[in-house]
Amino acid sequence: MSKVLDNLKYAPTHEWARVEGEFAYIGITDYAQDSLGAIVYVEGGDVGDSVSQFEEFGAVESVKAASDLLSPLSGTIVEINEEVIDEPELINQDPYTHWLIKIEMSDKSEIDNLLDAVSYQKMAK
Amino acid sequence: MKKTILYDEHVRLGGKMVEFAGYLLPIEYTGIALEHQAVRDQCGVFDVSHMGEIEISGKDAIAFINYLFTNDVASVEAKRMVYGLMLYPHGGVVDDMMVYKYNNHHLLLVVNAGNKDKDLAWILDHQQAYDVEVVDRSGYYSQLALQGPKAEGILQSLTKYPLHNLRSLTFDHLTMLNHDFLVSRSGYTGADGFEIYGANAHIFELFQLFSRLPEITLCGLGCRDTLRFEASMPLYGHEIDETINPLEAGLNFAVKLDKSFIGSEVLVAAQASGLKRKVVALELIERGIARHGYEVEADGQLIGHVTTGYMIPNTTKSYAFALIASEYAALGTIVGIRIRKNLVKAKVRNKRLLEKKYVR
Fold first, then answer.
1. Do A63 and B33 touch (CB under 8 A)?
2. What angle do CA A52, A58, A63 make, to 5 degrees?
3. CA-to-CA distance for B106 and B97, rounded, in angstroms?
4. Which of B98, B105, B116, B126 could make an S-S bridge to B110, C-beta 3.0–4.6 Å?
């Protein structure tokens, strides 16, 4: 079974969000990295881009295929994790430490639309 | 869904099984990048039993195949292989294939699994005027590809046949494990290596032996595609299909326009009037990976599409093949590839993505 963390919120499309005040870090789940296999490329938009809940903001790619990334929450990108852009395989090693983007949320009530760890784990089996 | 004779072995050995051309085959075992590198540096084995084998025999065998086939089989010595294509009268491709020439009265065609039934029907539709017998041998043969710089040494340990004498694109029958195999020095990876055909049970035995040798990496379809891409070899449904002719695909070396074959008139005319589109190699000069079907643009217009694209495993080099309007096909031309919302810059480059090391 794939790993989940209790302190995160999850989108059904296998992205996670870690909320810290007005900000949220966004990444992909253990289930997502495992299904994709070795990740060789990450694209997460640019600082200043706005993202909308459950809409595309970038992609992660394995050798074989590209997979769209949907943002769990709406807001504006304030930081890109350059470390995973340079070394995408870090996501395979630890998908919960290696976030992709940090956003400033525009509507915190959207958090209620996300799954908690227990519900997500039931789904991602 | 069909299974090759090795299906249970793939599952037992941890292959990740997917559907391909109607068969369940492993896409990877330990990972595409690792398997890709094993073939470049060491040795990998592939189950390619899904490939179709069609035997043509009889006194008109050469005349018949030369009528259906773009390349010239008549001028080639016995026990050599010839790459070429069968075309529709309009110049589009029925299939590409290897013809194994035993002699002037006996040929073996090795064709794509997904096209085999169509190929067989096409061949039978045209055989009336020729004294030939056509037999589908696909059920009899299974096939392994042993690829990589260490392939010769490994295979040599199993046979008395002097493999060094078997040069690139030649074949012979030889004995391993007390069984007869057809072995050619060839492959679809750009590496030195062998393609090995045998009765299903014999291939099963050989694969079991290969799978126990630590110097052989088990390989799946995933790296088969990255390897053939890096070696600039076309794949039916991508660089060639019924709408793309072989000159557009840049396969001129396999098209002999000084002889007459189905489709040759259209190709001669197309050559004379100038090709409108060409398959080119692109090197991405901004970040991104081009995938099959992505649009290619220049001067604000759609000029074609990507036929195959990858970031070469274990590198950051991102390349693509694309079928584009000929006016943009010159080396060094800058075009854009539409990757999601971005237009990513790419440069037309030569197709030698890899330095091949064949044994001539």
1. yes
2. 155
3. 16
4. B98
Local confidence band at B359 (pLDDT 50, 70, 90 cut-offs) = confident
> The domain B276-360 is classified under which CATH number: 3.40.50.300, 3.40.980.10, 3.40.50.2300, 2.40.30.110?
2.40.30.110
Spatial neighbors of B242 by CB under 8 A, at least 6 apart, are B88, B92, B93, B94
Q: B15-68: per-residue pLDDT in tens?
A: 999 999 999 999 999 999 999 999 999 999 999 999 999 999 999 999 999 999
The tokens 């790619």 sit on which residue?
A61
A89-104 pLDDT, tens per residue? Answer: 999 999 999 999 999 9
Q: What percent of chain B has pLDDT over 70?
A: 100
B340 and A43 within 8 Å at the Cβ level: the answer is yes
pLDDT, chain B, mean: 97
**B276-360: same fold as B53-136?**
no
Domain residue ranges in chain B: 2-50+139-230, 53-136, 276-360
Interface probe for A, chosen from B235, B319, B338, B340 (most Cβ of A below 10 Å), is B340
Tell if the pTM clears 0.90, that is, is over it. Answer: yes
Residues of B in contact with A62 (CB under 8 A): 32
Q: Rg for chain B (alpha carbons), in Å? A: 21
Domains of chain A: 9-108 (2.40.50.100)
The fold for domain B53-136 equals Alpha-Beta Plaits (3.30.70)
The whole-angstrom distance between A55's CA and the closest CA on chain B is 13
Angle, vertex CA A96, rays to CA A90 and CA A98, nearest 5: 40
The CATH architecture assigned to B2-50+139-230 reads 2-Layer Sandwich (3.30)
Partners of residue B36 in chain A, C-beta under 8 Å: 63
Which residues, listed in sequence order, are joined to residue B94 by a DSSP beta bridge? none
B269 Cα to chain A: minimum distance (Å) = 38
Here the tokens at position B342 are: 């971005």
How do residues B163-199 score in pLDDT, each as one tens digit? 999 999 999 999 999 999 999 999 999 999 999 999 9
Mark B194-223 as b/e (b = at least 16 C-beta within 10 Å).
bbbbbeeebbbbbbeebbeeeebbbbbbbb
Mutating which of A64, A69, A93 best tests the B interface, going by the most B Cβ atoms within 10 A? A64
